[in-house]
Amino acid sequence: MVRLILVRHGQSESNVAALLDSAEPGAPLSALGRQQAAELPARFAEERIERVVASPLARTVATARPLADALGLPLPVDAGLREVLSGDLEMRGDRDAHLAYLDPVFRWMAGDLAARVPGSPEDGRDFLARYDRAVEAAVQGAVGAVVLASHGAAIRAWAGIRAANLPDDHGRERGLPNTGVVVLEGAPGAWRATEWQGERFTDVDDDPTGAGVPG
């Protein structure tokens, strides 16, 4: 059983400006974001981490680098871990743009995988397919913990959909701050969430409702 640790990148310059930023290379980390990244090795000191993989955007690579270096591990990148694409909303920061961006992501979580961000080339099926491929490649042959440095909406959508013990609205109702963490255990096709930014969950087998009640 693999322990999969999904980490949102540190604060970026686009986060500071509240801009939707999904294109490569993306904005760099802010000063706070660099500090958040530097704290990750100590934060994960008790984990038996075998691999660290990042999305190719500048902010995720810079977030994962201190952890990979501290562990003496390489830092491969996988485009499948990129953020949900912003399409026509790229680099907009107004409220309407943010709502238009999140609406299809929330609809994916509710089962409407045909929804897509305006102007985006991918719908929910495309997103899940590329993220699934990235996760499967990252965990192949692993027996300990694997850390994936990725993005807020992408982590919320993928983990909210793929974790069998989470209620359907979990990813919609709970955001993820910079360097926020979601932890799943299991294997491709059989993931269960154990933690969402400090919130812990009972195993589905121990929960008669099957809803993944917070522990």
Could you explain how this protein is built, in words?
It comes from Amnibacterium endophyticum. It holds the Pfam family His_Phos_1. This is Histidine phosphatase family protein. The chain has a six-stranded mixed beta sheet with strand order 2-3-1-4-5-6, sandwiched between helices. With about 220 residues, the chain is an alpha/beta fold. The protein has a single domain, classed as Phosphoglycerate mutase-like (Rossmann fold, 3-Layer(aba) Sandwich). A hairpin with a 2-residue loop joins strand 4 and strand 5. The protein has eight helices and six strands, in the order E-H-H-H-E-H-H-H-E-H-H-E-E-E.
In short:
The protein has 215 residues and is α/β, with parallel strands linked by helices. The chain is 35% helix and 16% strand. The chain has a 6-stranded mixed β-sheet with strand order 2-3-1-4-5-6, with helices on both faces.
Tell me about the largest β-sheet. Answer: 6 strands, mixed
Provide the β-strand percentage band. 15-25%
Give the radius of gyration: 16 Å
Any low-confidence stretches, pLDDT <50, length ≥5? 204-215
Helices and strands: which structural class? alpha/beta
Distance between the termini: 21 Å
* Level-2 CATH architecture: 3-Layer(aba) Sandwich
Can you say what the CATH homologous superfamily is? Phosphoglycerate mutase-like
In total, how many domains does the architecture comprise?
Answer: 1
> Quaternary arrangement of the chains shown?
single chain
Strand order of the largest sheet: 2-3-1-4-5-6
Shape: globular
Pfam families: His_Phos_1
Protein name: Histidine phosphatase family protein
Organism: Amnibacterium endophyticum
